[in-house]
Design brief:
By secondary structure, the protein is mainly α. The protein has a two-stranded antiparallel sheet. Helix 10 runs antiparallel to helix 11. The longest helix has 26 residues.
C-alpha cells in the first residue's frame, strides 16, 4: 500500500489511527491499571479523577484549573475545579511524575511478565522513540510538556513514554481540529457520542456536564443543522468525519518519518504486548475515547 493510499482512501483506516489503536493501551495503564490508582491514593489523591488529573497534568507543572480545562478540552470546568488546583497542595507535580513512572513500571512488568526484558520490547521501544522524536510540538502544549521530561532508560518505559508523547500530540491536534470545526467542549461530546455509538448520559457524567448543559448543546447543534433529536444529520456526520480525518492527518508525521515498513513492524511487535494488557484488565472496554484496540488474529 502506498503512502497516498494509506492516508486518503475512504475504505482504508488511516495509518495514524491504526497506530493509535495499536499502541494506546500501552499508555492507558497510566490511568486504568491498579498500580496507577494505588499510586495516586498513596499520595493522598482520593478518587479516580484526582489521580487522573494529577498524573496527566503533572508534566505541565502546578497549573490552574483553567489551563487543565482548556487543554483537556472536553471536561466541564466545574468538574475539573473539584480536583485542580487542590491536588497540587496534596502532591507536587514532581511527586506525581515519579509516582506515575513507578506505577507504570509495576503495571507493565505484571502484565508483560518475562516479555519486559525481551528483544522485541527493546526493538519496539527504539522504533516508537524514533517516531515520537519526529512529532512537532509547536502549538501542542501537552505533547511539549511530556517531550521536556527526561526519557526513561528501561526499554518498556521508553515504549510507554514514546506512546505518551504520540498520543498527547494526537490529542493536541484533535483539539485544534475541534476548534476549527467550531465545536465547543460539550458539543464535541454530543457529536462524539452519536458518531461512536457511546451512551450519551454515560459520557456526559464521565466528563462532568449537567443535563441542562447537555440539552443546551444539543439545541445549539440542532440550530446549526448538525443534530436532529439524538442523531447526527448528514451534515453532522460529515463534520464529525472531517474532524477525525484532520486529527489523523495532523498525527501522521511520526509514521511518515518511520516509513510504512517500520511502522508495520512496530504494530506487529506491539500486538502481543497489548493483548497482555487487555487480558490483565488494564484497559476499559468501554472508554470515553471510543477506542477499540487492535487485537491479534
Amino acid at each position: 500500500m502506498s503512502v497516498d493510499q494509506a492516508t486518503t482512501s475512504a475504505d482504508v483506516e488511516h495509518r495514524a489511527r491504526r497506530m493509535w489503536r495499536a499502541l494506546e493501551p500501552v499508555h492507558a495503564v497510566t490511568y486504568f491499571a491498579p498500580e496507577s490508582r494505588q499510586a495516586g491514593e498513596a499520595l493522598g489523591l482520593r478518587g479516580f479523577f484526582r489521580g487522573y488529573f494529577g498524573q496527566r497534568a503533572a508534566p505541565l507543572g502546578a497549573v490552574s484549573a483553567e489551563v487543565v480545562t482548556a487543554l483537556f478540552y472536553n471536561f466541564a470546568p466545574g468538574f475539573v475545579a473539584r480536583s485542580v488546583p487542590e491536588i497540587w497542595g496534596t502532591a507536587s507535580p514532581e511527586q506525581l511524575l515519579e509516582a506515575r513512572l513507578a506505577a507504570v513500571d509495576g503495571a507493565l512488568r505484571r502484565a508483560w511478565g518475562g516479555l519486559v526484558d525481551s528483544d522485541d520490547v527493546a526493538e519496539a521501544a527504539e522504533l516508537a522513540r524514533e517516531a515520537a522524536l519526529a512529532v512537532p510540538t509547536a502549538g501542542r502544549a501537552l505533547a511539549a510538556a511530556n517531550a521536556a521530561l527526561p526519557w526513561p532508560t528501561a526499554p518498556h518505559l521508553v515504549l510507554w513514554h514514546a506512546q505518551t508523547l504520540l498520543r498527547e500530540q494526537r490529542g493536541d491536534g484533535h483539539v485544534a481540529a475541534l476548534v476549527g470545526a467550531d465545536l465547543d467542549p460539550v458539543e464535541t461530546l454530543v457529536v462524539f457520542a452519536d458518531a461512536q455509538n457511546l451512551p450519551g448520559d454515560w459520557l456526559r457524567e464521565r466528563r462532568g456536564w449537567t443535563t441542562p448543559e447537555w440539552a443546551a448543546a444539543k439545541d445549539r447543534l440542532a440550530a446549526r443543522g448538525l443534530l436532529e433529536g439524538d442523531a447526527l444529520t448528514p451534515a453532522g456526520k460529515a463534520l464529525s468525519a472531517d474532524v477525525e480525518a484532520r486529527t489523523d492527518a495532523l498525527a501522521d508525521r511520526a509514521w511518515r518519518t518511520l516509513g510504512d515498513e517500520r511502522t508495520a513492524r512496530l504494530a506487529a511487535l506491539a500486538a502481543p504486548l497489548v493483548q497482555r494488557i487487555l487480558a490483565a484488565g488494564d484497559f476499559l472496554e468501554q472508554n470515553p475515547m471510543g477506542l477499540v484496540p487492535t487485537r491479534s488474529a
